[in-house]
Design goal:
Layout (H helix, E strand, L loop, with lengths): L11 E2 L5 E2 L6 E2 L12 E10 L1 H6 L8 E7 L2 E5 L6 E4 H14 L11 H4 L18 E4 L7 E5 L4 E4 L3 H7 L5
Antiparallel strand pairs: 1-2, 2-3, 4-5, 5-6, 6-7, 7-10, 8-9, 9-10
Helix pairs in contact: 2-4
């Protein structure tokens, strides 16, 4: 995303959840990707971190997909434009889940669940942390929704695959 005033890259999220140009302080309007289930907003500014999911899938052909700066609601994240996965700090993840669940007013949804596809990754298929390159843990999320998430204990970050946040928000249970 480029600033409409000075054309500089815009990637800074202020406390109110609006993007602001680092150079001229102009506010920028960011819209969610049109095909994003989780309402993922990406700025187009690449980070120095590779997408753990796309890199694992593309490791055979050497493709490297970089994460971009972005946001979910008013939480800063790094996201992948290709797979729409999200790399988020644990405290931000907790705030995001709380906010999404409290704002959701639709019907409770219990999504189809296939243990082979939606369950924790096997020991051999676990993702590599994009920050410290250690193997991430894969486990069932202890909150609502039938999802398995990946987490790096050392970096205190969580990897969410596309749609997992929405499944958590729409799951039955206390709001």
């Amino acid at each position: 995303m480029k600033c409409i005033s000075c054309a500089a890259p815009v990637s800074r999220l202020d406390r109110s959840g609006r993007y602001v140009c680092d150079y001229c302080e102009t506010e920028a309007v960011a819209k969610a990707l049109s095909d994003s289930i989780d309402k993922l907003v990406l700025t187009g500014t690449a980070s120095s971190l590779a997408c753990p999911s796309c890199c694992q899938a593309g490791s055979k052909n050497g493709n490297t997909v970089m994460l971009e700066t972005g946001s979910l609601d008013n939480q800063s994240i790094l996201g992948c434009r290709t797979c729409q996965g999200v790399w988020i700090r644990r405290p931000s993840f907790a705030l995001l889940v709380h906010g999404r669940r409290s704002e959701y007013t639709g019907p409770d949804r219990v999504s189809d669940f296939d243990l082979a596809v939606d369950g924790p990754r096997s020991h051999y298929d676990r993702l590599e942390c994009p920050t410290c390159q250690s193997t991430m843990e894969s486990f069932f999320y202890a909150g609502p929704g039938r999802v398995a998430i990946d987490s790096c204990a050392a970096c205190e970050r969580v990897w969410l695959d596309c749609g997992e946040l929405t499944r958590i928000a729409e799951a039955p249970g206390r709001r």
